[in-house]
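step=encode ok
step=design start
structure_in=
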């Protein structure tokens, strides 16, 4: 639901239901943190590193490199 935080309960339910990924708008990903390194396989260039904040530019570079999925870390904003 828009505007609601994902809680541990939600994650347990998603896991129970076998959900492996969630499609989200680009605006949701900008500012989140990458869970792993992403490399442009054609050039060998490191696009984004693990634990790096994701910028709009990095998302564009990932898209140009052919990435359609991105793993992000979810942190509690408390």
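sequence_out=
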């Amino acid at each position: 639901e828009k505007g609601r935080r994902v809680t541990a309960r939600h994650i347990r339910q998603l896991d129970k239901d076998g959900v492996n990924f969630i499609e989200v708008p680009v605006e949701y990903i900008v500012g989140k943190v990458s869970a792993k390194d992403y490399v442009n396989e054609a050039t060998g260039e490191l696009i984004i590193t693990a634990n790096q904040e994701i910028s709009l530019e990095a998302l564009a570079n990932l898209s140009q490199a052919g990435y359609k999925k991105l793993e992000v870390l979810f942190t509690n904003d408390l």
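step=design ok
step=annotate ok -> The domain at 25-78 is CATH 3.90.105 (Molybdopterin biosynthesis moea protein, domain 2).
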